[in-house]
């Protein structure tokens, strides 16, 4: 218990996401918002909303509500966000009437939902809530930009860059320069078979089908 008698609420935080959690806390404070919920879009539309949540500063009673309920409200929000790239505003009408007071009391009666993509193309949702939200278009655009910047930093930990070997990166660089496997082999002092093996491994790690695709993706990720 704190000195004021209010129980401290422990956020759901993964160790490797501390930077993202701190960035989201700073962002909502700067914009007069109270709560956020961040997670990955479920691959299966029937999967539980709460099971895809990664970070949140939601009060414990709200988290418990979602764990107990059929999470229809959460799925409804994700279904709407899934079909748009624009920010979406939600109000308590999306919450069961019996839970309106619970949400309003904790400054969750109005929510802005964002769909975000990281550099690897993975899709996430970000819900930003407050008792009242009045953001200008410029302020909302700034929130989207700040969210993407924070997500880029978060994604560094799982970037293929840390998985590619120095030889794989070198072979990709020469491929980007238009060199064939035999030519790269001569330049690097390797056999053409070994070069082909390095490139196949790089394609697999980057989740690409062709060398051109791998070069384009590695360039976008600042690997080469």
TrEMBL record:
<dbReference type="InterPro" id="IPR036388">
    <property type="entry name" value="WH-like_DNA-bd_sf"/>
</dbReference>
<keyword id="KW-0804">Transcription</keyword>
<keyword id="KW-0805">Transcription regulation</keyword>
<keyword id="KW-0238">DNA-binding</keyword>
<dbReference type="GO" id="GO:0006355">
    <property type="term" value="P:regulation of DNA-templated transcription"/>
</dbReference>
<dbReference type="InterPro" id="IPR016032">
    <property type="entry name" value="Sig_transdc_resp-reg_C-effctor"/>
</dbReference>
<protein>
    <submittedName>
        <fullName>LuxR family transcriptional regulator</fullName>
    </submittedName>
</protein>
<dbReference type="InterPro" id="IPR036693">
    <property type="entry name" value="TF_LuxR_autoind-bd_dom_sf"/>
</dbReference>
<feature type="domain" description="HTH luxR-type">
    <location>
        <begin position="157"/>
        <end position="222"/>
    </location>
</feature>
<dbReference type="InterPro" id="IPR000792">
    <property type="entry name" value="Tscrpt_reg_LuxR_C"/>
</dbReference>
<dbReference type="Pfam" id="PF00196">
    <property type="entry name" value="GerE"/>
</dbReference>
<dbReference type="GO" id="GO:0003677">
    <property type="term" value="F:DNA binding"/>
</dbReference>
